[in-house]
Amino acid sequence: MAPPLLQVDALHSPHGGPYSFTLRAGECIAVVGRSGSGKSVLLRLVADLDPHQGEVWLEGRARSGWPAPAWRRQVVYQAAEPAWWAPTAEEHMSGQTAGALAPWLEQLGLGPQALLAEVARLSTGERQRMALLRSLARQPRVLLLDEPTASLDAASVLAVEQLLQARMRETGLAVVFVTHSREQAERIGHRLVEVRDHRLHPVG
Ligand SMILES: Nc1ncnc2c1ncn2[C@@H]1O[C@H](COP(=O)(O)OP(=O)(O)OP(=O)(O)O)[C@@H](O)[C@H]1O
After folding, report:
1. Model confidence over 127-139: pLDDT tens digits?
2. Which pLDDT belongs to residue 142?
3. Nearest CA owner, ligand 1 atom 25
4. How far is the CA of 44 from the centre of ligand 1 (A)?
5. Mean pLDDT over all residues of the chain?
6. Where do the domains of the chain lie?
7. Ligand 1 within 6 A of 113 CB?
8. Closest C-alpha to ligand 1, atom 2
9. What ipTM did this prediction achieve?
10. 3-class SS letters over 10-52
């Protein structure tokens, strides 16, 4: 049998873990847990953003064998409060044209002009949807999402979930989705885990 797309082995730091799980192409693991339980720590360790021990494998190849920029192209982390480093969203879109992004913009209820507006002038919810587009524009194999719909109304939440589900189905994108909503976890997750006592526990 083919190895899992992502394999996480005893990943830990002083702030969380050891965490172990596998993720297949096209699969979503939804992660729930109390505030401060270590959900963001988990994502940051998988993304290689904090010092840690343990290992992560992508397509059977250990992360220690990947050049860091190549790893970060394939495994993309979206923070709960994403940072922006240029004035407009368009400048963050990994060279993808407005035309190429148009279907996603429309699906998320954003007009094409939102790409050209100053990011700072977008509403919190517009910025959050734009952050997801930026993550998808990088065409990762694995997307690590930290509460990506926290600022959205119910219709926009569903639009985000539907876009992600289509990308998982059509491209094999794999997702680790951190959320405070058990209902959302059940909608989007093929598997649910809870972070408790610095460990992952299967839910349901
Ligand atoms: N670099 C760090 N230095 C010190 N403490 C840290 C560091 N990173 C995380 N922590 C601590 O680890 C714990 C888990 O943090 P984490 O951000 O993962 O929580 P969370 O489950 O994502 O919470 P929330 O749902 O509120 O976002 C917290 O107590 C946090 O203060």
Report:
1. 999 999 999 999 9
2. 98
3. 35
4. 10
5. 94
6. 6-202
7. no
8. 15
9. 0.97
10. EEEECCEEEEEEEECCCCEEEEECCCCCCHHHHHHHHCCCCCC
